[in-house]
Amino acid sequence: MRRRLGRLALLWAALGASAGCGAAGPAAGGPRTDLVVFAPHPDDETLGCAGILLQALRRGERVKVVLFTNGDGFPDFASRIVRRPVDGLREEDFAELARYRQEQSLAALRALGGAPEDLIFLGYPDSGLEAVEQAHGPDPVRQKYTGRSATYGVARPDYHSTIHGRPAPYTSEAVRADVAELIRTLRPLRLCVTHAEDRHPDHRAAFRFVRDAARATGWTGEFDTYLIHGGPEWPWPLGSTPGSRFDAHEGKGGRIPQGVSWPPPRRVPLCAEEASLKAEAVRAHLTHLADVSSGPLAEERRYLESFVKAEEVFWGGEGR
User: Fold this and answer.
1) Are 64 and 120 in contact (CB under 8 A)?
2) Which of 116, 239, 243, 280 lies 20 to 30 A from 305 at CA?
3) Torsion over CA of 190, 33, 98 and 242, rounded to 10 degrees?
4) pTM of whole model > 0.85?
């Protein structure tokens, strides 16, 4: 019993208990979390949800951001920060990438008024989340870039190690258990996660993990999804346009964004100041691109800046 109580206290501390709220965590009757944003990679939480996170924090609400991965599966990014050619990258270089991206997400959340304890890293594999979801059985997936097969953190420890004293294997069962535990503990009033039809396989897997955990725990509340990869030339209009709303357009292969209804069912306006603060948070994820003026990395920067609009848009959890 003493060990169990110690773990509950540790869990409550790790999830950002407020001073004066008592020793018991939310599962024991503490306050519910107003907004929990799940994101596959560091930066997705900012691109899709910085505005609603900012608004919730300004209302004094409890928010948490849960990142499935450390963003450690991007060779071009790793090459840039360690100054080594892609074909010469080593496993430790991708661990350095994980540290860098964790710190970017921490800086982005600070720009919105959030605290480090509002950010939770699960530490599962970038560019491998769907492979983990689709793998069945006890054998963990091995991430091809880091060589790891269990959760970890660098700038910040991973959730499972913090709570349970050991990392979790890269298995579907482990991810589902971590996500369900967080939902039971945080008891969110509103969940946001990437859309089921997002073009990126990690993003679709994140949706299914959250959907399945919500079902397994019997959670009820508002379930919203946001779109990051909606096809070529999404978001539209391209570039940082804080005075414009998101819009659909005709692109290669038909209407963009692909796979979702338009107009979206929920459009959350951002005032000029809120859009400006979102732009600051997005810039926290662009520190490695500050001196880029042309080429694919410049296009990457423009793509990320395109999420700065006069609103944020959401769909329901279709299929949940």
Assistant:
1) yes
2) 116
3) 50
4) yes
